Amino acid sequence: MAETMKLEIFRYRPEKESEPTFQIYEVPFREDWVVLDAINHIKEEIDGTLSYRWSCQMGVCGSCGMMINNVPKLSCAVFLKDYYPDKIRIEPLTGFPVERDLIFEMDDFMTKLTEMQPYIIREEGEEKPLEEGEYLQSPAELAHYKQYSMCINCMLCYAACPVYALDSNFIGPAIIALGQRYNMDSRDQGRDSRQELIASHDGIWECTFVGECSAVCPKHVDPAAAIQRAKVSSTIDWFKDVLIPWGKKK
Amino acid sequence: MSTYLRPVPNTWWLKRKPYILFMIRELTSVFVAGYCIFLLVLVYKLTQGADAYGNLMVALKSPSSIALHLITLVFVLYHTITWFNLTPKILVLYKGEERIPQGLVAGAFYAGWVVVSVIVAWLVLGV
Fold first, then answer.
1. Which of A106, A110, A239, B80 is the most exposed place for a label (fewest CB within 10 A)?
2. What is the mean pLDDT of chain A?
3. Which chain B residues contact residue A19 at CB under 8 A?
4. Of B15, B89, B99, the CB nearest to A225
5. Closest alpha carbon to A5 in A75, A86, A69
6. Is the C-alpha dihedral spanning B16, B18, B24, B26 positive or negative?
7. A96 to chain B, minimum CA–CA distance in Å?
8. pLDDT per residue over A63-90, tens digit each?
């Protein structure tokens, strides 16, 4: 008989239940299947009502993040064989309101992402006309922020962050890392306009450096480090303000 | 559409080992702060004269005091080692275009720790 495996999946259908439940599905075990393959098999062959997000199946789009045995992971990057023969428990990413089954609401993330202004900002009068070409940058200047630019907005770091789960006002790891990404970009001049958000109470100072955001990041962005480095530069700002109030910041 | 927000139990930190280790680290801060206060008391007793300082020294030799100091030592060591290991994440230093290796940054803290410990041992033991 072919080998099988059990998946215990979080179900929430707001039109028929007020509390979530768990449903166990039995799927064929295949060495080359990732968890997302098994969930796709359920959707196609067993239960078409199961809802979840996915797209690229290659760890690039960041859509298929789920709690897999309580750890936030991209379901396209986790092999069944690493859990076989045990049952795998699958839930939506923690910290977010659940819309249906494994689909969670990401409005809060999207709003904060916009507020961070994650794009290159030039000071007034500093913008070059298009015909003058690109803003040039050396490989060394690129190396300063490249790591933080690898984020795919999968939100695994939010699900790993107990601070965000306990207080959703926290701006959170990925978005602060993204702010830091632009602050460290030699072409950018928008640090001051991001600083109000980054250095706010709901920004970097809410972080207690649990460090799990960096541990679960599939792209090795290391948002925990980005936040701690932002704490250092914000503290330097504060000292400059206090010690040399007549001096110009920067 | 009505969404469902899962409650976070007070025991959230017991669910995974990294969270437990984090909470232990948070707890160690209490011992670090406690020992700082203890050192201040020690200085205060010095200002109160030889008798007051001598009485405290006698009290410190009790088994319960020694046990408390040993427990504090373990927690302070845990705090120090985990902190030193985290420093390269925060102190990102470059030599020219090359980033200074993380091990070297943490290693500098450990080296500083050894140097300070040797100086303190030399002052206390006089050897």
1. A239
2. 95
3. 4
4. B89
5. A86
6. negative
7. 7
8. 999 999 999 999 999 999 999 999 999 9
Q: CATH 1.10.1060.10 in chain A: give the residue spans.
A: 107-247
Q: Do A98 and B5 touch (CB under 8 A)?
A: yes
Neighbouring C-beta atoms of residue A41, cutoff 10 Å:
16
Contact A121, A184 (CB under 8 A): no
pLDDT single digits (tens) B89-113: 888 888 877 888 999 999 999 999 9
pLDDT at B20: 97
Question: Which tokens belong to A83?
Answer: 């859990």
Q: In angstroms, rounded to a whole number, what is the distance separating the alpha carbons of residues A80 and A38?
A: 8
CA angle A72/A209/A115 to nearest 5° reads: 75
Domain A107-247 class, CATH top level: mainly alpha
Which residues of chain B make contact with A228, given a CB cutoff of 8 A? 86, 89-90
Residue identified by tokens 């009485």 is B55
How confident is the model over A34-44, as pLDDT tens digits?
A: 999 999 999 99
From the list B4, B16, B92, the residue facing A12 with the nearest CB is B4
Among chain A residues, the shortest Cα distance to B88 is held by A225
Are B90 and A139 a contacting pair at CB < 8 A? no
Q: What's the gap in Å between the CA of B108 and the closest CA on chain A?
A: 19
Residue of B nearest to A212 (CA): B18
For the residues B59-63, what does the mean pLDDT come to? 93
Q: Is residue A250 predicted with pLDDT exceeding 60? A: no
Residues carrying CATH 3.10.20.30, chain A:
4-104
Structure tokens at A190: 């928008």
Tell me whether residues B15 and A70 touch, CB distance under 8 A: yes
CATH number for the A4-104 domain, one of 3.20.20.70, 2.102.10.10, 2.10.220.10, 3.10.20.30?
A: 3.10.20.30
As a whole number of Å, the end-to-end CA separation of chain B is 75
CA neighbor of A228 nearest in space, from A195, A178, A180, A189: A180
Say how far apart CA B46 and CA B27 lie, in whole Å. 30
pLDDT at A247: 67
In the numeric block, which tokens belong to residue A46?
């067993």
Predicted ipTM of the assembly: 0.89
Q: What pTM does this model have? A: 0.91
